[in-house]
Amino acid sequence: MELQERRPREFSAVNDAVDWLKRNHQTILVGSIVVIAGVAFVAVSAGAGLVVLAPAALLAS
After folding, report:
1. Which residues, 6 or more positions from 48, have their beta carbon under 8 angstroms from its beta carbon?
2. Number of H helices and number of E strands within the chain?
3. What are the residue boundaries of the structural domains of the chain, listed by start?
């Protein structure tokens, strides 16, 4: 039910995206795609429960 209520978010500025990520960091799932100003990032695990955003272009090969 909770997943059905979630909607895609669009950000045209990095500051807005960073603010949203700070408020919602616990709900970001590993493998989620976040688009900021037209650039796709993927949430990846950096160990010890840390999740970071990596540019999707780095993961595509």
Report:
1. none
2. 3, 3
3. 2-59
Structure tokens at 24: 């919602």
Nearest partner of 40 among 59, 21, 61, 22, judged by Cα: 59
What is the rounded distance in angstroms from the CA atom of residue 4 to the CA atom of residue 12? Answer: 24
Write down the residue that tokens 């979630």 correspond to.
Answer: 6
Residues making up the chain, counted from first to last: 61
Contact 10, 35 (CB under 8 A): yes
- Residue 61: band (very low, low, confident or very high) from pLDDT cuts 50, 70, 90: low
Convert the pLDDT of each residue in 26-44 to its tens digit.
Answer: 777 788 888 877 788 888 8
Six-digit token string for 55: 């540019």
